[in-house]
Every structure is written in structure tokens, then in C-alpha cells.
Amino acid sequence: MSKFDPFLREVIRYAFDAIADNMALTLMRTSHSGIVRDSLDFSTALSDSTGQTIAQGVCTPMHLGCFQDALRNVIKNFEGKIFPEDVFIFNDPFAAAGQHLPDIYITSPIFRNSTIVAWATALAHHSDVGGIVAGSNALGAHEIFQEGLRLPVVKFLEKGMPNQALLDVIKLNVRTPDKVLGDLQAQIAACKSCEKELGDLFDRYGLETVLEYADHLQDYAEELTKSEILKVPNGVYSFTDHIDGLGRDPAPVILNVKVTVEDDRITVDWEGTSEQVSGGINPSFPFTKSCAYAALRSVLEADIPNCEGFSRPITVKAPLGSLLNPKFPAPCGARGITGYRMIDCLFGALASALPDNVTADTTGGSTLPTISGYIDGKAYVFCETFMGTWGGTSRHDGQEGVPHMGANQSNVSVEMIEQDYPIRINQYGLVPDTGGAGQYRGGLALVREYESLHDGALLNVRSDKRDYPPHGLFNGKEGKPSQNVLNPGRNSQLLPVLMTEVEALNKGDVFRHIMAGGGGYGDPLTRRPEMVLKDVIEEKVSIESAKKDYGVVIIKQGEGFIIDTNKTKNLRNRLSA
Q: How confident is the model at residue 558 (pLDDT cuts 50, 70, 90)?
């Protein structure tokens, strides 16, 4: 490594990052669907000629560790048949190393002097790709054929000429063709942005220099990662977590992980996890690996480049036929919930090794409600990745109104939903007394209430954390469980967390979702009374919960609140005895 200038390495490294980030901005600004433009459910990457990831856009971590498997599959299948201005498209987990059918890859080779020198790739979650459920997240699917249009690796453009037959097939098989085709064009625009900006970098520093530093960056990332792993105590760290289960009679789905740290290497082994299920929550193995990379990357402190070299010291295992390495034709449409749970489970395992680097359990990732229907014969599909809240940490309370670290996504604004869809948002906010008690409290749950403004709408929901609410750490308490309620306050009906059957909505019907609250960190009786008082003043914790959960007696005085110091001291002494 000594022959490389560390200053130039950093310049070129951050140029790569800027190129990937600008791809993301281009995709966001030119997309057509709310799930891409507003929820930010997409990812971008720059890869070298062999498919190794060089840089990743500021997007969805759970996506990004999969890119190298997908690109290598493209290169292998089309060796000798790749030309300038080609654009490839694919989505299938089994035939194309994809993730799930709504996540469509667009990738294009970048040539210099008639030689492939890099690849630009943009992945976007599309509003619909067909299948038995609008939005194509069919929790009740029993095989992948029920989930929508399966695309192997094919040329979307060949030498710049569109594949009209493929365009016609896609248009005919999706419910929202204008949005799907518009988002595909946005992905192509993102790849073109990458090609132009990488060309500018070649012009400035020279092709050979840039490519040499791209190779060097992989080795540099590997060495940095190894040096960080050496700081983690050697040992075997295990944890078991659960997904509540599918449908109206759910059977718990078990995730069991064993993390082995041995000097400068880490092995993540999912032996003991449930077998693949007859429902759409089975992730492909590339996605399983990606979630492990995302979790481990987040607990290592060095500024490691976001390239494939990071993953070299990490081995991920999952038994073939298990939930996390399913056999064909397992359905994968709603595999995102399993990705979140993998990361949560890994945090649970690593808590004893790195207690200051993980949070107590989060709200469990995004809830994905889908409301669909037809207005004047034209289909609409509303879906969003509704985020969330975190558990407490060793330093502060759990954050609220933030994404799960596995998905750097966003809640859609009320105004955008009501402008684009026949839906009214009646309520959106934080729910008091839902964060797990602790020295540092878990973040509060969020609530969102959707009212249908026409007859004949259909509701589908992917959520979790009702039967197994977010756990606390180091004597911290659980967060409150999630709820899915149809028509609260009038013939209310409790809906499953993972709906295998759609629910019909007529005009005026209301769906209320309350997320789970984050888990607490540390003993609640060690929380400073002043922090409890602040929570009461801000209406995050009630006076009753302050007394019951924290042993803090707060009384109302005039227009405000004060701590009864003597009663608090006596109560805490009794509770801790």
C-alpha cells in the first residue's frame, strides 16, 4: 500500500462517493412514484469491471451488500455480449441474484477505449410489478410465481435501442405502468449521471490512476475492517429473536444467530433459524449477507470506505432451505421485515461484546401499508415505508421519527399522500407511555391513521412486534407492542400484523397503525428524576407511568409539575429492595 498517496486516495474515494450520491439524487428527482420519490426506497452503486462495489449512494444499507452478487451474475451470463449503451434489467431472486420482485435493478456498463472499466447500477422499489396483491408484497403467497413479473437478466436497451417487446410486457403486467416505466427511466438517468461524472474523474486524474486507486480502496477497506474487528473481544455471541408470524393464526418465526469473533475475522451463522415459510417473508441469501454487513458496519467505529473490501473478513452462513437461504420457489415479496429482524438480532448478539455501540431493540423496521383500488377504471397503489423509532442507548434516549438503520428511508408527508391518493390522514404523531422504561428510555411509538375516501379499496399490511415487542438491554424494559386496528371506536377490529388476506375498505373506513415503542436501556430506577419530569412536561410519559415505571413521584403545582423528592426517594428504595 505504500506506493499509494493517502491524500489522493481520499480525494478519489470521496469522488466515488459523490458520484454514487449524485446518482441517488438524480433518481429521486426524476422518479414518478411516491415509494421512490418520497419514501426513498431505492439504492445506487458504482462498481468496477468485475462487479466489485466501489461506492454506494446514501440509500438503503440492506440493499447495498447485494450488488456484487447481482453484478457478477450479469457479467457471467453476458460475457462477450456486452456493448456500449447497453442497459440490463432484472429482479428475480433465483434466476438473477435479485432481492424481491418489486426491487428492479437497472445496470449499465461504462466503457473507455472499447473496454468495460466500471458499472453503474440503480435499484428501485417499484409501486407494483403485478401478482396477487397490489404493490406486490404478497404475504399470503405460497410461491414466487404469485408475486408478480419475474425478470431474468435481459437487455432493456441494446446499444442504445429500447427493447420494445419487453416494454410492452412490463406495461401489460403491472397495475401502474406510468409510474413503473417512469421510474425505470429515472434509474437509467441515474446510470447516465454516473457514466458522465466517472468520465470527468478519468479526464482529471487519468484512467489508469483512477482504476488503480479503485483496486487499492478494496484492500484499504479490508485492512481497516480487520483492525476494527481486532478491537472486539474474541468470543461467541448468540441471540434469538422472533417474527410474530403470518395471518390470523400466527406461528412464531425464529431467528437464531451465533456471531464468532476470532482475531480479525467475524463469522455470522444462522443455524437454528426457522425453515423457509409458505409466505412472502423469505429473503434471498445475498440479502441475508447484506443485512449482516449492514449491522456489522454500523458498530465498527473507523471511517471504512463503503466498498466490497469491507465484507472480505466477514463470513455469513445460513442452512439451505432455512428462512434466510430459501430454496426455489419460495416467495420473497415481503422479505424486508426479515431483513430488519436480522439486524435487530445481530444487535442483540453484539450487545454483550459492544454494549456502547448498539441500541436496545427498535420498533422493528418499517411498517408497509398498501391501499389500492380503481378510480374511473385507473388503478392506484399507495404504499409507503412507515418508519419509526429506536431503542435507548448507553448515552441517550431512543430517537423518534427516524428510519431503521437498515433502511435510510423516509415517511411520506401527509400533504403528499392526500394530494396523490383518495386517502385522508386523520392522525399522525407520537404515542405517550410506549417507549420502554430504562436509564435511557426507548423512543415513543408513532401512530398513523388512514381513511379511505371511496368504496372498493383494498388494504394490505406488513408490520410486526405485537407478540414479541422490542426488548430492552441491561435491565431496560420492553417497548409497548404494535397495533393494527380497523375502524377504531366503531365496531373496531384487530387486524393481523402480517396480513395474508387483503381487507376491503369502503368510504369512511379507517385503518389505524400504532408502531411498537423502542426498548429501554439500563435500569429505569437509575434514570435521573429530572429527565422523567421533562418527559412528563413534554407529554411523553404520564404521571402514573413516571411513578410505576421509574419510581418518580411527580405532582401538579399550579400550571406546571414538580418532583416530590422525599416520596421519590422512599419509593425508589422500596422498588429496588
A: confident
Question: Are residue 402 and residue 540 in the same domain, yes or no?
Answer: no
502 & 571 share domain: no
pLDDT tens column, 529-541? 999 999 999 999 9
The reply to whether 391 falls in a domain is yes
**Exposure string (b/e) for 65-98, b if CB count within 10 Å is 16 or more?**
bbbbbbbebbbebbeeebeeebbbbbbbbbbbbb
For residue range 453-484, list pLDDT tens digits in order.
999 999 999 999 999 999 999 999 999 999 99
Q: Indicate whether 468 and 554 sit together in one domain.
A: no
C-alpha cell recorded at residue 326: 430459501
By the 8 A CB rule, do 381 and 128 touch?
yes
Confidence class for position 1, pLDDT limits 50, 70, 90 = low
Asked if residue 572 lies in contact with residue 525, where contact means CB atoms within 8 angstroms, the answer is yes
User: In this structure, are 536 and 418 located in the same domain?
Assistant: no
Q: How many domains does the chain have?
A: 3
Q: Check whether residue 436 and residue 570 sit in a common domain.
A: no
Report the alpha-carbon distance of residue 121 to residue 87 in Å, rounded: 10
What are 477-519's pLDDT values in tens digits? 999 999 999 999 988 999 999 999 999 999 999 999 999 999 9
378 and 482 share one domain:
yes
Picking from 20, 29, 66, 36, the residue whose alpha carbon sits closest to that of residue 406 is 66
| Length of the chain in terms of residues written | 577
Domain limits for position 507: 359-527
3-state secondary structure string across 136-153: CCCCCCCCHHHCCCCCCC
The torsion angles phi and psi of 80, rounded to 5 degrees, stand at 85, -5
Number of other CB atoms surrounding residue 373 within 10 Å: 22
> Is the same domain home to 538 and 439?
no
- Does this model's pTM top 0.90? My answer is yes
With respect to residue 158, please indicate whether it lies within any of the assigned structural domains.
yes
- Give the closest residue to 125 by CA, choosing from 221, 60, 220: 60
Element (H, E) at 90: strand 87-90
Between β-strands 265-269 and 314-317, what pairing exists: parallel, antiparallel or unpaired?
Answer: parallel
Q: Are residues 375 and 481 in the same domain?
A: yes
SS3 544: helix
